[in-house]
Amino acid sequence: MKRQFSLAHLTVLGCPPPEMTYIAAMTGYDYVSIRPIYMGLPGEPNYDLAANKEMLKQTKRALADTGVKLHDIELARIYEGVDPKRYLPAMEIAAQLGGKAVLSSIWTPDRDFYIEKFAELCDLAKQFGLTVDLEYVPIASVNTLAGAVDVLHAVNRENAGLMIDTHHFHRAGDCVTQLQSLPREWFHFAHICDAPGEIPTEKDEMTRILREARSYVGEGGIDVASIINNMPEMVYSIELPNIENAKTFGYAEHARRCIESAKNYLDAHPRG
Question: What are the residue boundaries of the Xylose isomerase-like TIM barrel domain, all occurrences included (predicted)?
Fold first, then answer.
């Protein structure tokens, strides 16, 4: 079975979804993973397709022109006071464009609240045929595999999934043997990238690498193969923000290097 890859939003942060789709097609990706949920972060472009009808039209055209498909949308964060219904317009767009999944993460320490709201998010997504895949992030409230597993067991929703990012898995100090015991149906896609092997002790440095200085697969210190090979085969979404490389090579060449390095690495580290 041919491996399938998606080009993730952060890898080509400055590209709106139509341009991103053409870059994905040009460089050999099967899917795109876009961010139509505007988060309001400093310097973040607004790709809210529900509010920008012209950009939505151009995105539909790009998908039709290229044959690239939409895989997932991000980022349906659970944070203090959030109403998951605010994500409905983006989920409607995802379904309209043929998407499969909604990426989520949790940014409040209030367990009762985030369990309730994550379950609600899953229920809202179900009507669109979408999974909701929980990503644990080192700088978020749910920041370990154990924490994410706790959420999935608690909500007990058929369309809830676990999204492993190789960077975050390494930074959390998680063990690959833990992956083997988890339900296979939880795994829908993974984020792959590399990064320096030394885990930063300062949050600012952790955040800097996470958001703008990840490495091509095989060029860092993460044992990516062990993580990937202890999960089922699935779509690999390459989330590899690297501001310096994007400026040096341009977004298209950066995206090409991302997928080429990932393919070469995975070919060299086959499943046992």
Answer: 24-244
pTM over 0.90, yes/no: yes
Outline where 218-250 has alpha helix (H).
224-229, 243-249
Let me know if residue 271 belongs to a domain: no
Domain extent, residue 156, equals 5-247
Q: What's residue 39's pLDDT?
A: 86
Within a domain: 260: no
Task: Tell me, yes or no, whether 266 lies in a domain.
Answer: no
Residue 259 lies in a domain: no
- Preceding omega of 75 cis (within 30 degrees of 0): yes
For CA atoms 93, 97, 99, 105, the dihedral sign is: negative
Q: For the segment 130-151, what is each residue's pLDDT rounded down to a tens digit?
A: 999 999 999 999 999 999 999 9
Domain containing residue 20: CATH number: 3.20.20.150
Strand order in the sheet with 5-8: 160-163, 131-135, 101-106, 69-78, 31-34, 5-8, 235-238, 189-192
* C-alpha distance from residue 208 to each of 46, 98, 130, 160, 203 (Å): 21, 33, 31, 29, 8
- pLDDT < 50 stretches in the chain: none
